[in-house]
Amino acid sequence: MKLKVYKDYNELSAAAAAMIIDCVKAKPEALLCFATGDTPKLAYEMVADRAVKEKVDFSGTFIIGLDEWMGISPDNTGSCHWFLHEYLFKPMNMDASQIHLFNALAKNEKAECDKMNKLIRANGIDLMVVGIGMNGHIGFNEPGTDENSLTHVAVLDEITKTVGQKYFAGKVTIEKGITVGLKQVMEAEKLLMMANGKNKAPVIKKAAEDNISTSFPATLIQKHPNGFLLTDNEAASELKQN
Ligand code: GLP
């Protein structure tokens, strides 16, 4: 794992955006897997902006959504679906055929997982962009998730349910999430984990310095052969050295 610490959220986001753009320039048919949340928002806006201005060709890429809140409609502004369309797909004019997001309203959860597993197996993920939950989760791979897990529906941790309210306009009941599995996260050619802000400092300390364990899934980044932990100064402030 390589740790890279940037001055602030703006510089962190610009660096992440550059890694995404560089990946697509090197492999125009890349399969990209993107988390949502407050952390990568500016990076995606920067990707969209640069792609349009610099005419970076994303037309051959495929984009997978890392996770989704089960039972939440795609037009809910708190859904991962809405987020990716709003900040990335719409500004980039991305074709629907390139986009693979979970259907959170699917009656058949297994079929929904199988579809994603098949797509990942067929192509392999070139670049995976993830954030970190306050309990160390990656996507909805909650503490204790099997390291060999593929795409699955997870019962959400209490911390995830509480913190997750921040994305929604009003109080919602969120009990389950669908997510790409830890094995697939770890098998991505390149893993980019991002965190910013003071409230993520204890989480980053654990992710980078604790023993590797699925009881804090973000620690797995330490053993990814091409893993990058990108933070701003605030999120890195509790690290022994950076
Ligand atoms: C959410 C999502 C994750 C996200 C993480 C951090 O619950 N399931 O995919 O990366 O928690 O979110 P944020 O960037 O808003 O802190």
In short:
The protein has 242 residues and is an alpha/beta fold. It is built from 7 helices and 10 strands. It has one domain: Rossmann fold (3-Layer(aba) Sandwich).
Describe the structure.
There is one protein chain. Helices cover 33% and strands 17% of the residues. The protein is an alpha/beta fold and 242 residues long. The radius of gyration is 16 Å and the shape is globular. The protein has one domain (2-181, 194-229): Rossmann fold, CATH 3.40.50. It has helices at 9-26, 41-53, 80-92, 109-123, 158-163, 182-186, 201-209, and strands at 2-6, 31-34, 62-65, 67-69, 99-100, 127-130, 152-155, 176-179, 190-195, 227-232. The protein contains 7 helices and 10 strands. The longest helix has 18 residues, at 9-26. The model has no long low-confidence stretch (mean pLDDT 97).
CATH architectural category: 3-Layer(aba) Sandwich
What composes the largest sheet? 7 strands, parallel
- Average of the residue pLDDT scores: 97
Task: Tell me which ligands are bound.
Answer: 2-amino-2-deoxy-6-O-phosphono-alpha-D-glucopyranose
Helix share, percent: 25-40%
Rg (CA only): 16 Å
- CATH topology title: Rossmann fold
Q: Give the spatial strand order of the biggest sheet.
A: 1-10-9-6-2-3-5
Beta percentage is 15-25%
Stretches where pLDDT is under 50 for at least 5 consecutive residues are: none
Structural class: alpha/beta
Alpha carbon gap, first and last residue: 13 Å
What's the total count of β strands? 10
